[in-house]
Amino acid sequence: MSVRTVITGMGVATPHGLDITDFWAATRVGKSAIGPVTRFDVSGYPARLGGEIRGFTAAEHLPGRLVPQTDRVTQLALVAADRAFKDARLDPHDVPADDMGVVTAVTAGGAAFVQDEMRKLFSRGSRHVSAYQSFAWFNAVNSGQISIRHGLRGPTGVLVSEQAGGLDALAQARRRLRKGSALMAAGGFDAPIHPLGWAAELAGGRLSTSGDPERAYLPFDAAARGHVPGEGGALLIVEREDAARARGARAPYAEIAGHAATLDPRPGSGRPPGLRRAIELALADAAADARDVDVVFADSAATARLDREEADALTAVFGPYGVPVTAPKTMIGRLQAGGSAVDVATAVLSIREGLIPPSIHVRPSPDHRLDLVTGQARTASVHTALVLARGAGGFNSALVVRALD
Amino acid sequence: MATQEFTVQDLKRILREGAGAAEAVDLDGDILDRDFEELGYESLALLETGGRIEREFGIELDDEIFADHRTPRTLVEAVNAQLKAAV
């Protein structure tokens, strides 16, 4: 049997806070962090609600040299990384630098940095563009900056599969551990609340244009009308179980037991969507049966077609009302690549506490035949959690998180 | 027209604005003869600093200026020599 991949540290940067304790305290009681966008003047746009990380000042958390060279998304990733390594109680000397790597997912890189520098380019000329534009924008920058800051000199990479990215990054980290790395930092982040990011999300056609924070993002509800975007993500420290024991790591939270990713067929092909296959393959990878799954963290796209597809996949695998399903994203919005990484952190905390956090504001449509946990959290013995994510462009990803016996 | 002068105060301000300051370094301390690298500024930080000096003072610096002038003292002297020559 191959060596298990265990989670030994977690760091989050979400609209529910930068501290994992604050994050869970808000999540477990179903607190909403969705409100009017304040980061830019959103009055001229059809979508005006967001899940913002309020009161975040990079200079309070990061070295002065890093602040001018980083986009907000990188600043959030670096802050989460600091906290994840601290949570893992890792002394950099515990593990050789070449045995540690990082893989992160992102959708739009440092888009706000790009926007600001392009504004200078077009209004004042090329001499006004920051030298840091050379790297601050690109998709690999979060992995690169985390690698430099924490001295991770092993495998480093970046994945772009929109909302599915956070799960795919963790799966890639697991593959790297199986190939011999001792420790990987993995997760996903996005920070799209700025005019350029907003324009891109609007062009995707899935944003809710409701102005009511309690009615805007309602996955699996007959009134579903798109989602509310949020910002942030999560970074997890994952280790080979033997390596974690060798360095005397803290008791791991849980293991990443299985994963699969599939791609939807071309629209109009008549072939079925790939989510069900991703779920079945992930369960097989975890040597788990549908009956072993205690909770599903749903992708929760909140459009009629995508909700239908997800509900169909879940009822096909688990049967109607066959497993508790939840959508904590209803509290903070969809964080693109960050959203699924945050859901993994939430799944881990659910396992630890034996509590399924609620989906808020949703009245599930009986057509979907889902046992959606709504209103308030549900006490449950959670041993195995399935996290689902679907990225715009046809990406499906399923990841199994399991308690360590 | 009087010659514009580039002071070490200007340099410190531009460094802070464009590239930030390392926690371990006190830019208000005795930095005149310390190497930029020792002060925590790598080549990209210096490129950004050079660009800001050029914009603010309306001059064009040689691409090699930071290779030839590794400390605040000699850089300030070199920029001022160029400002004087440009009058």
From TrEMBL, chain A:
<dbReference type="InterPro" id="IPR020841">
    <property type="entry name" value="PKS_Beta-ketoAc_synthase_dom"/>
</dbReference>
<dbReference type="InterPro" id="IPR014030">
    <property type="entry name" value="Ketoacyl_synth_N"/>
</dbReference>
<dbReference type="Pfam" id="PF02801">
    <property type="entry name" value="Ketoacyl-synt_C"/>
</dbReference>
<feature type="domain" description="Ketosynthase family 3 (KS3)">
    <location>
        <begin position="2"/>
        <end position="403"/>
    </location>
</feature>
<dbReference type="Pfam" id="PF00109">
    <property type="entry name" value="ketoacyl-synt"/>
</dbReference>
<comment type="similarity">
    <text>Belongs to the thiolase-like superfamily. Beta-ketoacyl-ACP synthases family.</text>
</comment>
<dbReference type="InterPro" id="IPR014031">
    <property type="entry name" value="Ketoacyl_synth_C"/>
</dbReference>
<protein>
    <submittedName>
        <fullName>Ketosynthase chain-length factor</fullName>
    </submittedName>
</protein>
<keyword id="KW-0808">Transferase</keyword>
<dbReference type="InterPro" id="IPR016039">
    <property type="entry name" value="Thiolase-like"/>
</dbReference>
<dbReference type="InterPro" id="IPR000794">
    <property type="entry name" value="Beta-ketoacyl_synthase"/>
</dbReference>
<keyword id="KW-0012">Acyltransferase</keyword>
From TrEMBL, chain B:
<dbReference type="InterPro" id="IPR020806">
    <property type="entry name" value="PKS_PP-bd"/>
</dbReference>
<dbReference type="InterPro" id="IPR009081">
    <property type="entry name" value="PP-bd_ACP"/>
</dbReference>
<keyword id="KW-0597">Phosphoprotein</keyword>
<dbReference type="InterPro" id="IPR036736">
    <property type="entry name" value="ACP-like_sf"/>
</dbReference>
<protein>
    <submittedName>
        <fullName>Acyl carrier protein</fullName>
    </submittedName>
</protein>
<keyword id="KW-0596">Phosphopantetheine</keyword>
<dbReference type="Pfam" id="PF00550">
    <property type="entry name" value="PP-binding"/>
</dbReference>
<dbReference type="InterPro" id="IPR006162">
    <property type="entry name" value="Ppantetheine_attach_site"/>
</dbReference>
<feature type="domain" description="Carrier">
    <location>
        <begin position="5"/>
        <end position="83"/>
    </location>
</feature>
